[in-house]
Amino acid sequence: MDRRTYIGTIGSSMAALSLAGCSGSDGGDGNESTSTPEPTYEVDQEAPARLKLLSVSGPKEVAFGDTIKGDVTAVNVGGEPISGDATIEFVHSESGATEPQTVTVNADGLKSGEEVSHSYRVDANYAGAWAFETSSDFYAVDDTVTSTVSVLPKQGSTGETIELASGVQATVSDMTYEQMIAYELSPGERTIGDNTAHAIRETVSDNILLILSVTFENGTGEAKTVSKDDFVVPESSFVSESAAGRDGTNAAGENINPGQTYSGHLIYAVPKAQIDDLTFGINLAEGSAVADIEIPLQSPGGFPEFELANIDVPPEDVTGDEATVAMEVENVGDSAGMFKSIFEFKTPEESGLFASYSADTWYIDADGPFTQRIPAGETRTIELVTEPDSDRRWDYRTTPFGAEWTFEAVE
């Protein structure tokens, strides 16, 4: 005889996690709920033991660091008693490298048609979306179960010391916005010989460079490397070049020995339109792009924006040891900024036997960068000085602005 029975679950409060339970970390009374169809099930007494998950209750969202509490309800829809307990994993959906947390359902010995409810507690130790995933111990999951929870990031502040996943302590001490930075080139990269030269990184008109001053302290017992993946600034792109002319360089990739303190910079190109809502995020979960700790960043009163007002270049025939270019640069933006410029040069003539340059290749002059801080609405004159080899025609240009000219150094 086919012995099957349809049975309604006990306790209608055991609704799905994303639809019922407490309202999260906003101080609600915990009674917010939405009408949800009750799960039903069919018991087949001719079948072996079969455990079905009926419901998972709990909060919709919690704050980072809180404990997530709730109940799970399961039923034996088979004809024989369940042998052994069952497990459910609480999985961080944002990072596959994060260890899941296990919830055990005490189902051992559960008879045919019997239900079991089990309370659980798991730690909200990473921000982002979490979900319950059943193991193979379960025969089925009711369609009404949508067991997800959102963990909201913790709010931090500049000046606060935060421990990274590596154990290194990080403190954001200052922030500035600049239109450009200068950074060092490695020897041989558009340089002549072993000279140290600098290139300029500038943003397009609708972006600005955010430069964060960060101090790292390694109190662990082993060397640690600062990874850019530990940090996130939404709607931005990470700038890998070092920030020359400042106290320290780009911190990403810096190796910090045990007991060492290092101050450097993290640099991002960010849209100007996003400045008012900009946050600096710290990730504690490997491979996650969701910030576990968010630090709101102060919105500036404006941005620097430089324009070339005038330029005086040498005559076509230059005598003496030096050639000077005078640029009048105006800051038409709303905030003071550090203007930076470099010389680039090339010659159409092939180099001699002992020369270290190639024809028609742009090289960067090692005497730069030429820098000056320009207040908003003001103009400054920047002189770029170079020492060209004599009896040879040279092509020169400036970065930024791309002003070009040609002259020949004569005895």
From TrEMBL:
InterPro entries: DUF4352, Immunoprotect_excell_Ig-like. PROSITE patterns: PROKAR_LIPOPROTEIN. Pfam families: DUF4352. Residues 22-43 are annotated as: Disordered. Gene3D superfamilies: 2.60.40.1240. Residues 204-275 form the DUF4352 domain. The keyword Signal applies. The keyword Signal applies. Keywords: Signal. This is DUF4352 domain-containing protein. It comes from Haloarcula marismortui ATCC 33800.
